[in-house]
Design brief:
Oligomer: single chain
Number of helices: 1
Order of helices and strands: EEEEHE
Largest sheet: 3 strands, antiparallel
Bound molecules: zinc ion
Radius of gyration: 11 Å
Protein backbone atom coordinates (compact mmCIF):
# COMPACT_ATOMS: atom_id res chain seq x y z
CA UNK A 1 0.00 0.00 0.00
CA UNK A 2 1.38 3.40 -0.96
CA UNK A 3 1.69 5.96 1.77
CA UNK A 4 0.79 9.45 0.66
CA UNK A 5 0.94 12.71 2.51
CA UNK A 6 -1.90 15.21 2.72
CA UNK A 7 -0.92 18.60 1.29
CA UNK A 8 -3.28 20.37 3.69
CA UNK A 9 -2.33 18.93 7.06
CA UNK A 10 0.68 16.68 6.26
CA UNK A 11 -1.02 13.58 7.63
CA UNK A 12 0.29 10.35 6.13
CA UNK A 13 -2.60 8.35 4.73
CA UNK A 14 -3.01 5.11 2.80
CA UNK A 15 -6.47 5.74 1.33
CA UNK A 16 -7.60 8.23 -1.32
CA UNK A 17 -8.73 10.84 1.20
CA UNK A 18 -7.11 12.37 4.24
CA UNK A 19 -8.58 10.84 7.38
CA UNK A 20 -8.10 14.06 9.33
CA UNK A 21 -9.17 16.98 7.13
CA UNK A 22 -10.94 15.05 4.36
CA UNK A 23 -8.82 16.56 1.61
CA UNK A 24 -8.08 14.50 -1.49
CA UNK A 25 -5.01 16.60 -2.28
CA UNK A 26 -2.44 13.91 -1.56
CA UNK A 27 1.18 13.69 -2.63
CA UNK A 28 3.55 10.76 -3.01
CA UNK A 29 6.43 13.23 -3.04
CA UNK A 30 7.11 13.73 0.64
CA UNK A 31 10.08 13.21 2.91
CA UNK A 32 10.66 12.60 6.56
CA UNK A 33 7.94 11.98 9.08
CA UNK A 34 7.14 12.44 12.73
CA UNK A 35 4.87 10.39 14.93
CA UNK A 36 2.83 12.63 17.21
CA UNK A 37 1.69 10.76 20.29
CA UNK A 38 0.69 13.65 22.52
CA UNK A 39 -0.18 16.72 20.40
CA UNK A 40 -0.85 18.96 23.38
CA UNK A 41 2.67 18.45 24.71
CA UNK A 42 4.61 18.30 21.43
CA UNK A 43 6.25 21.43 20.08
CA UNK A 44 6.53 19.80 16.63
CA UNK A 45 2.77 19.32 16.67
CA UNK A 46 2.29 23.01 17.46
CA UNK A 47 4.66 23.98 14.68
CA UNK A 48 2.78 21.87 12.15
CA UNK A 49 -0.65 22.76 13.57
CA UNK A 50 -1.45 19.18 14.50
CA UNK A 51 -4.04 18.40 17.15
CA UNK A 52 -4.73 14.76 16.35
CA UNK A 53 -2.13 12.11 17.05
CA UNK A 54 -0.65 10.07 14.24
CA UNK A 55 2.03 10.06 11.59
CA UNK A 56 2.84 13.24 9.68
CA UNK A 57 5.22 14.13 6.87
CA UNK A 58 7.75 16.89 7.46
CA UNK A 59 8.00 17.98 3.83
CA UNK A 60 5.27 17.63 1.22
CA UNK A 61 5.63 18.77 -2.37
ZN1 LIG B 1 -5.26 16.40 5.66
Amino acid sequence: MTEQACRECHRIVTGSNCSVCGSNSLSTDWSGFVVIIDPSRSCIAKKLNIDIRGKYALKVR
